Prior knowledge:
By secondary structure, the protein is of the alpha+beta class.
Amino acid sequence: MLIKRSPNGIELPFSSEITPRAVFEARRSFIKQAAIGAVSSAALLEMMNREAFAQGTHPKLAGKLNPAYSALDKQTAYKDATTYNNFYEFGTDKSDPAQNAGTLRTRPWTVTIEGEVNKPMTLDLDALLKLAPLEERVYRLRCVEGWSMVIPWIGYSFSEIIKKVEPTGNAKYVEFISLADNKQMPGVSSRVLHWPYTEGLRIDEANHPLALLTLGMYGETLPNQNGAPVRMVLPWKYGFKSAKSIVKIRFVKDQPRTSWNLSAPSEYGFYSNVNPNVDHPRWSQASERRIGEDGFLARKRKTLMYNGYNDVASLYTGMDLKKFF
């Protein structure tokens, strides 16, 4: 990959920091729409919400540390992890979710589980919290844009859900559907993505112990901008695969069509495993910037295959990972 430099030798901003094409085209429209309601009754709520995020005053949520699934890397500061986010339902800039997500109401909340299962069910948040013992796992999370974080998440393996609903033999994939409510989520009125946000996994991927149904982080319930009240965390895949604010889970026979793959199929594949050997069409994936540690003008880390979670390698035996990217 050709790295452009200025005449004095300073490396120019990374191509991974360049706004995706779809985002750039939709941003002006989004800003105009957001400006219409800039002075509203929601403003005070959002201000209070931001203050709570800054102070770390969300309800406590304890989980027993699982050392088998806890990276030894230095953890990202809470402030960085809660103010630098991708959550396009609340805006396309990294600071937008923390500024705008105060409008999200996380109670009452239910998640419907349906499709190719013997025991379909609808679980409220309290039922989800009690479904299995909560664990704390420190996972690295790698974003497709070239940055990463290390976060102590709280939840339990998604396999616990799979056991409860008893998939039929026809269930080959799991589809995750996020909330899409333009009254709570200003970004949903934009055309930057296909709404509701939808992601998917093969059922054996969803059944892997690393796949975490996540209800908290840093010893607290999830902040709104981090996907409250329930999300997935898949540490061996790029961050956009980890669906946020989930309201429906479907077990299906055919591979689900996912939001980013629909918007830019040549750039965002269904699998989206972290793979330093497969470049994004517009930038390299060979290195990354750790938020809060690595300087903006120098990449200091090599990206690891599967983000360093090599336990998942057996899921892809015999697959051409350049074709199934």
